[in-house]
Specification:
This protein is mainly α and about 180 residues long. The chain has a domain of about 80 residues. Helix content is about 80%, strand content about 0%. The protein contains 7 helices and no strands. Helix 1 runs antiparallel to helix 5. The longest helix is centred in the first third of the chain and has 57 residues. It is rod-shaped, with a radius of gyration of 23 Å.
Length: about 180
């Protein structure tokens, strides 16, 4: 009887160790994925001043657009420091929308659209936006895996003992979900 109880205790301890290690793996993957988003957002924030300066040279009287882009960038950088995924998502979506207005201004300046600097910055921002989307999907997959592991029985008991927290998803806001209106 002692061996049976000892065997059960050993199995239970091994299960807790195995589950804890799996939770740590999922947690680190989610943190790595969040870091990937952070890297791409920093890249976006670094490119924006160059883009604004390039467009400013052509469109001197569009001061409000530049001010909005600069304020949105500052807001996004502040949200990033806070670390709340919801706040970051909102600030980054606001920044994305102000960038759209900046590109709309460029439509009024044919010389600007022909500028190699502008074209290259536009390509870089497009590439960055694609990388941000990929990083969001990667983060959400890892957050989902961690959340499922934390929620499932009996792993949820180990997760509760060691205070593992679920991750919020990086989701699109309502404006991003709307259909784009294309007219000719």
């Amino acid at each position: 009887m002692e061996y049976i109880i000892g065997g059960i205790v050993v199995l239970l301890v091994l299960y807790v160790i195995f589950t804890y290690n799996r939770l740590i793996t999922y947690k680190n993957r989610a943190e790595e994925a969040w870091s990937d988003i952070d890297v791409q957002l920093k890249r976006r924030h670094d490119l924006i001043p160059n883009l604004v300066d390039t467009v400013k040279g052509y469109a001197k009287h569009e001061r409000e657009v530049f001010q909005n882009v600069t304020e949105a960038r500052t807001s996004a950088m502040n949200a990033k420091e806070n670390g709340d995924p919801e706040e970051i998502r909102k600030a980054e979506n606001q920044l994305k929308n102000t960038l759209k207005s900046l590109f709309a201004v460029s439509e009024d300046y044919p010389d600007l659209k022909a500028s190699e600097n502008f074209k290259e910055l536009q390509r870089e921002l497009t590439d960055t936006e694609n990388k941000i989307q990929a990083a969001r999907r990667f983060y959400n997959r890892n957050a989902k895996a961690l959340n499922i592991k934390i929620q499932k029985f009996p792993a949820n008991m180990v997760a509760n003992i060691f205070n593992f927290d679920e991750r919020k998803f990086f989701e699109a806001d309502e404006e991003e979900k709307q259909n784009v209106d294309v007219s000719f």
